[in-house]
Amino acid sequence: MATNHSTSANPKVDLEYRRKKNAEDMKMQVISFALMIFLTLIAFFAVGNEQFSGWFTVPFIILLAVVQLLFQLYYFMHMSHKGHEVPALFLYSGAMVGLITVLTFVTIVWW
């Protein structure tokens, strides 16, 4: 028994809508990929440039890593689409537990 996932009575309209939506998604993925490459080049420049101290370079690279992580989640893992609320909840909960764990160990070690 075949199931029909079409949301309209006209399959041609549905096909055109999917093509347009896929083209928009592909455009956003290409743009975010280019931005991630650009952020990676900036990180290499920050490490290779001797004018920046380690106190600037390390937090700057961590900031760039967080930005790239958000690009990965929202554009390549499609977390911005409807229906991904439960996986997003688990990802954010895991990130919160990890952050609290790191903060706890940093507090224990430094005090």
Q: What would the principal axes of the Cα set say about the shape?
A: flat
Distance between the termini: 66 Å
Largest sheet at a glance? Answer: none
Number of strands: 0
Number of helices: 3
Structural class: mainly alpha
Strand content: under 5%
**N-to-C SSE string, H for helix and E for strand:** HHH
Note poorly predicted spans: none
Round the Cα radius of gyration to an integer and report it: 21 Å
Mean pLDDT: 84
- How much helicity do the residues have? over 70%
Could you walk me through the main structural features you see in this protein, from its secondary elements to its overall organization?
This protein is mostly helical. Helices cover 78% and strands 0% of the residues. It has three helices and no strands. Helix 1 runs antiparallel to helix 2 (54-76). The longest helix has 38 residues, at 11-48. The protein is flat, with a radius of gyration of 21 Å. The mean pLDDT is 84.
Task: Write a compact overview of the structure shown.
The chain has helices at residues 11-48, 54-76, 85-110. The protein is mainly α.
